[in-house]
Amino acid sequence: MALSRISVLLLLLVVKLGAATHAFLDLLKESDPVTDAITFHRRGTSRPAPSDKLPVLGLIELPSTHLDPPESELNHRKLRKALGKDFDPEYMAIGRPIIFVFQPNGTVSIKKRKGRPKGRRPDYVQEIGKPIRYGSQMRLPGLNINRRTKRKLKKYMWNYTHCPVVYAWKDLGIRFWPQWIKEGHCYNGRSCSIPPGMSCRPTGSETRTFFRWHCPVNKKGQSMKCKWIRIQYPIITECSCSC
Ligand SMILES: *[C@@H]1O[C@H](CO)[C@@H](O)[C@H](O)[C@H]1NC(C)=O
Ligand SMILES: *[C@@H]1O[C@H](CO)[C@@H](O)[C@H](O)[C@H]1NC(C)=O
Predict the structure, then answer these.
(1) Which ligand is closest in space to the CA of residue 188?
(2) Which of 28, 62, 95, 202 has the greatest count of CB atoms below 10 A from its CB?
(3) How far is the CA of 186 from the centre of ligand 1 (A)?
(4) Nearest ligand 1 atom, CA 103
(5) What's the domain range around 111?
(6) C-beta of residue 236 within 8 angstroms of C-beta of residue 165
(7) Quick check: is 14 in a domain?
(8) CA distances from 84 to 113, 176, 211, 230 (A)
C-alpha cells in the first residue's frame, strides 16, 4: 500500500507539465484516488479540473532529502514577492498560525445573514407545519401553532440541516510554499437530516496557488534542476446535506 503510493508519487514527480498533465492525472486517478486532487499547472494553461475527492488527504512524500528545497531557495521575502497577488493570507501562512495551537481541529464557520444560514432557503423548510397530503386520498392536519412559533421551528430546522465548513490549518511540509494551508472540511459529527441518514458533503471549492518544489526527471531518467512551480490546491468552501 505504502509502496504503491510512493511509486505513484514518483510518477507524479516525473509528470511533464503542459498538455500531457491532464492525461497523466487521469491515469493517476485510476491508480490513486488521492493524488489527482492536486493539479499541476503552468501559468496561463488550462484551468485545473475540479476534484470530487476533497479534502486532499495527506500526501505521501518520498523521504529523500535531496528532493527538499535547500536553505538558499527558502527566501521567504523572495517567494512572497514571486507569488504576488496569489498570496492569500486568509488561507495561507508561512509559519505555524497561533490559532492552530489552540484549535488544532479547526473552527466552525457559519456564514449568517439575519440570524439565518446564508444562502437560499431549502424548499422543505417552507413545508414545515403545513397539512400532510397523500394525493387527494388523504390529508393529515398541519401544525396548529402560532406564526411566531412556526417561524422559529422553520429557522431551527434550517439551522439543524445546515452544513457549515470547518476550517483547520494544515502543515503541507517543506516542499510547499507557503507551508501552511487553511483547509475546509465538512462537519460529520452527526447526521444533518431528520430522520438521520444524510450527511454533510462538499459542494463547493476554490483553489489557491501554492509553490511546489519540483524535481523533474527527463526521458532518460536523469534528474534535472529542481525548481519551484505553481500548483493549484483545492479548498472546500461549501458543504451541503445530501445522501
Ligand atoms: C481534536 O480531535 C481529537 C480527535 O478527534 C480529540 O481527541 C481532541 O481532544 C480534539 N482537540 C481539541 C482541542 O478539541
Ligand atoms: C439558528 O442559528 C443561529 C446561528 O447561526 C442562531 O443565532 C439562532 O438563534 C438559531 N435559531 C434557532 C431558531 O435555532
Answers:
(1) 1
(2) 202
(3) 16
(4) 13
(5) 21-61+68-115+162-242
(6) yes
(7) no
(8) 33, 16, 12, 12
